Amino acid sequence: xxxxxxxxxxxxxxxxxxxxxxxxxxxxxxxxxxxxxxxxxxxxxxxxxxxxxxxxxxxxxxxxxxxxxxxxxxxxxxxxxxxxxxxxxxxxxxxxxxxxxx
Length: 102
Hints:
5 helices
């Protein structure tokens, strides 16, 4: 009986965490649309790593670009990393250095 209760509790916890993750995605999307560039970075990171959303490097690139253009240094750094390693963009070390120093 304890095992069944533990399994049910575990399943409810997983479902609850997924609902919270989806809610936070929605909040980040709304805030990014309002030009909250930290939210754009956070949302880009989630797409980059596939946290709470399907992994989408192109979407991450777009969100990092918006964040960087808005002055978010973390967005610039991660965008620079993508250029440095050729992730979804043509590798460009000069562009990467430009973004790292922005």
